[in-house]
Amino acid sequence: GENVEQHPSTLSVQEGDSAVIKCTYSDSASNYFPWYKQELGKRPQLIIDIRSNVGEKKDQRIAVTLNKTAKHFSLHITETQPEDSAVYFCTTLRTDSWGKLQFGAGTQVVVTP
Amino acid sequence: SQTIHQWPATLVQPVGSPLSLECTVEGTSNPNLYWYRQAAGRGLQLLFYSVGIGQISSEVPQNLSASRPQDRQFILSSKKLLLSDSGFYLCAWSVRPEELFFGEGSRLTVL
User: Fold this and answer.
1) What is the pLDDT of residues A9-37, one digit of tens each?
2) Angle at B14 between CA B10 and CA B20, to 5 degrees
């Protein structure tokens, strides 16, 4: 089965700096890579995703990159703000495994003013 | 629009007691339904999924069971809770392979 490794487990950044979270996966059949943000005590919310036929995607201050050959993908947050503080999860999905996301262990991001 | 309701939001139960968490989806029909669990400081683990009424698949061996008595209702149960059952339980639904919408979650503490 799929194994998703996520690093780092915690990340402290100063407001305005960038944050980078990296994930690797093992199942070469994974073809969809969404990222979720979970605020304390809340449900995970999808913030950005990338498909296997795309190398990079950007949405305002958030960008994701995918290296399908190396089986790793990353989340980049630029100009971090205190409201970016949360736990971020990388996930993978095989679209023939409808809705059965495989989650990384999560990264606790703390943005200090 | 579609909505998902999950209850109770918080539950404190003694070891050995039964459990019932309920989830209902509105605004869609024949969704795929899922139960995920999140242990403290960990990622989410898929416990059960259902593609239709009475159709339940278990992803991991455990002390819990799931049922789908109606199209948009998904129930997570246990006859006797263990300490290790503590966690944050999330119901989710999808009608397309690449989407997954989570409920608000139920925080279970087993003492």
Assistant:
1) 999 999 999 999 999 999 999 999 999 99
2) 50
